[in-house]
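Input C-alpha cells:
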C-alpha cells in the first residue's frame, strides 16, 4: 500500500471513531467533550428549576443564579420538642456541577446540596446547650438535611428526636395539677381510671368527650367531668400544646382554681379539645392520695419553661332584686337568695428559655357574672304613727283672753297644768260665781257672790296664763308667777315683769 493511501485510510478511521463517540454520547446530554453543545430535552428539571432546551453550559449558568436565590431564601429548621432553630445560609451550599452531572434529560432531577458539619455542630451546641451531640449524631443530622434539600422546596423541618432517639432515653413528668377532695366519688374514680395511661400521639388532637364516649366513665356528671377536664387544662398550660376549645360555666365550680376551669356540658355541647404539635408521645397519669386528686403529663422534656399565673382577679358586688308578695307580713323582708359576687380573672403565661423571659402570652380572661340578691317584700305598707307634739303642759294657755287684772271673758273655760285656773259660773239674775286657782308652791281659793253678770270673782283674779293670782302663805304680796316663752316658771311682779 502506498504511503499516501495509508495516510488517507488512517485519517478516515480516526474520523469514524470520533463520529462513533459523538453518537454514543447522544444518550447522555451531560457527559463527554461535546456535552456543552448538547441540549436537554423537554421536561427536564433540576429540583423546581426548568433546564429544558438548554445545553449544559447554559443550564449551569441558570442554576447558579437559581441556587444563589435559593440560598438567600433558605428556610431549614432544626426542631427539638418546642424549640425551632433556623439553619444559617452559610452552613448550606448547592452544587450546580454535581446537579447537572447526575441529571437525566427529560426527567425530574434532584438537587445536590452539602451541609458543613462544623457549622452545624456550632449551631446545635449554641442552641441546644443542655444536650450533647456526638460526631456521628451531627453527621446523621447533616445527611438528613441534605436529603430534604434535594427537592429545593422551602421550608424544610428536621425533627432531631426522630433521628437521634438516644437523646431522650428517659421520660419525665413535665406538667402536673391537683384538686383537693376528701372523698373520691364514683364518677371521679371512673374518670381517673380511664384517663390514667392515656397516650397523646404526635401531631394529633384530643377531645375529652369523644375519648370518654362508650366508656363506663361516661356515666359521670358534667360537674365531675368539668373537675377532671379542669385538671387536665391546667397541666396542658404547662406545655406547648395548642388549645382548640375550652369553655367556662356561669359559676365557678367549688374547688376549681379561678382561671383554670374547662367546663364540660353535654346539653350545651361544650367540650375540651387540644392538639399535640410535637413529634413525640406523651402519657397522662392520674392518682388519688386520699386528700387530693392528682393529674400529671409524662414525656420528653421541653426546652422552654411555661409558667402560667393568674395576673388579676376583679370582684363585682351583686345587685338586689325586690319581689312583692301578698304572703309576706307588712314590714317583713324575706331573703329568697343571698346572691353571689361576680368575678373577672385574667391569666397570662411566661415563656422562658434558659431562665430568660422570651415572651408573655395572654391565655384567657374569664368572667363570671354576679348573681343578684333576691328579696321578697310585703304588698302592704307600714303606716307610721305621727307622734303627738311634746308640748310642756306648763306652757299651755287657756283659749280665753285674759287681761292683766285676771278677768275672764268666758267663765266656762278652764286650763290645766302646774298652774291652772278654773272659773265656773253661769249667767243668771244673781250673777253668782266662784274662782279657784292653784300654782306651784301656791294654793289659794276665793269665792264671792254679787250681782256681777260676768260672774267674775271680786276676791281673786286669774292672770293671762290661767294662773291664779291668789297669794300663798309663803310669798310676798307683790310676787306672782308666770311662764316665759320657753315654758319655764318664773317670778314676775304685779305688772308681769320678770323678777331677777
Amino acid at each position: 500500500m502506498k504511503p499516501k493511501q495509508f495516510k488517507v485510510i488512517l485519517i478516515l478511521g480516526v474520523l469514524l471513531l470520533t463520529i462513533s463517540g459523538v453518537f454514543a454520547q447522544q444518550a447522555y446530554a451531560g457527559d463527554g467533550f461535546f456535552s456543552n453543545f448538547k441540549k436537554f430535552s423537554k421536561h427536564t428539571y433540576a429540583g423546581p428549576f426548568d433546564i429544558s432546551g438548554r445545553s449544559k453550559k447554559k443550564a449551569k449558568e441558570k442554576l447558579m443564579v437559581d441556587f444563589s436565590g435559593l440560598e438567600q431564601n433558605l428556610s431549614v429548621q432544626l426542631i427539638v420538642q418546642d424549640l425551632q432553630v433556623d439553619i444559617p445560609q452559610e452552613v448550606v451550599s448547592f452544587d450546580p456541577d454535581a446537579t447537572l452531572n447526575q441529571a437525566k434529560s427529560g426527567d425530574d432531577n434532584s438537587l445536590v446540596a452539602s451541609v458543613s458539619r462544623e457549622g452545624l455542630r456550632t449551631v446545635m451546641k449554641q442552641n441546644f446547650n443542655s444536650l450533647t451531640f456526638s460526631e456521628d449524631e451531627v453527621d446523621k443530622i447533616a445527611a438528613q438535611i441534605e436529603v430534604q434539600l434535594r427537592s429545593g422546596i422551602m421550608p424544610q423541618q428536621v425533627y432531631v428526636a426522630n433521628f437521634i432517639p438516644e437523646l431522650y432515653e428517659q421520660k419525665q413528668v413535665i406538667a402536673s395539677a391537683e384538686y383537693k377532695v376528701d372523698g373520691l366519688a364514683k364518677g371521679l374514680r371512673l374518670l381517673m381510671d380511664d384517663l390514667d395511661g392515656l397516650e397523646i400521639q404526635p401531631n394529633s388532637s384530643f377531645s375529652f368527650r369523644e375519648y370518654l364516649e362508650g366508656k363506663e366513665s361516661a356515666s359521670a356528671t358534667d360537674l365531675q367531668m368539668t373537675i377532671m377536664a379542669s385538671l387536665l387544662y391546667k397541666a396542658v398550660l404547662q406545655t406547648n400544646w395548642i388549645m382548640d376549645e375550652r369553655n367556662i360555666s356561669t359559676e365557678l365550680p367549688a374547688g376549681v382554681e379561678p382561671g383554670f376551669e374547662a367546663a364540660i356540658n353535654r346539653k350545651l355541647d361544650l367540650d375540651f379539645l387540644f392538639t399535640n404539635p410535637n413529634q413525640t408521645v406523651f402519657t397522662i397519669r392520674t392518682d388519688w392520695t386520699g386528700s387530693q386528686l392528682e393529674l400529671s403529663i409524662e414525656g420528653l422534656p421541653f426546652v422552654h419553661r411555661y409558667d402560667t399565673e393568674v395576673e388579676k382577679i376583679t370582684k363585682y358586688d351583686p345587685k338586689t332584686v325586690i319581689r312583692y308578695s301578698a304572703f309576706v307580713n307588712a314590714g317583713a323582708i324575706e331573703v329568697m337568695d343571698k346572691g353571689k359576687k361576680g368575678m373577672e380573672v385574667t391569666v397570662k403565661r411566661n415563656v422562658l428559655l434558659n431562665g430568660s423571659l422570651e415572651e408573655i402570652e395572654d391565655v384567657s380572661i374569664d368572667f363570671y357574672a354576679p348573681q343578684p340578691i333576691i328579696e321578697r317584700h310585703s304588698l302592704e305598707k307600714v303606716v307610721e304613727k305621727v307622734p303627738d307634739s311634746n308640748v310642756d303642759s306648763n306652757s299651755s294657755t287657756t283659749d280665753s283672753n285674759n287681761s292683766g287684772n285676771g278677768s275672764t271673758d268666758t267663765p266656762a273655760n278652764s286650763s290645766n297644768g302646774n298652774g291652772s285656773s278654773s272659773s265656773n259660773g253661769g249667767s243668771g239674775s244673781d250673777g253668782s260665781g266662784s274662782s279657784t286657782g292653784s300654782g306651784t308652791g301656791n294654793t289659794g281659793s276665793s269665792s264671792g257672790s254679787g250681782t256681777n253678770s260676768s260672774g267674775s270673782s271680786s276676791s281673786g283674779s286669774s292672770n293671762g296664763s290661767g294662773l291664779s293670782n291668789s297669794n300663798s302663805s309663803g310669798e310676798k304680796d307683790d310676787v306672782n308667777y308666770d311662764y316665759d316663752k320657753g315654758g319655764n316658771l318664773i317670778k314676775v311682779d304685779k305688772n308681769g315683769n320678770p323678777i331677777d
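Residues 3-24 form the longest helix (22 residues). Residues 25-34, 391-476 have pLDDT under 50 and may be disordered.
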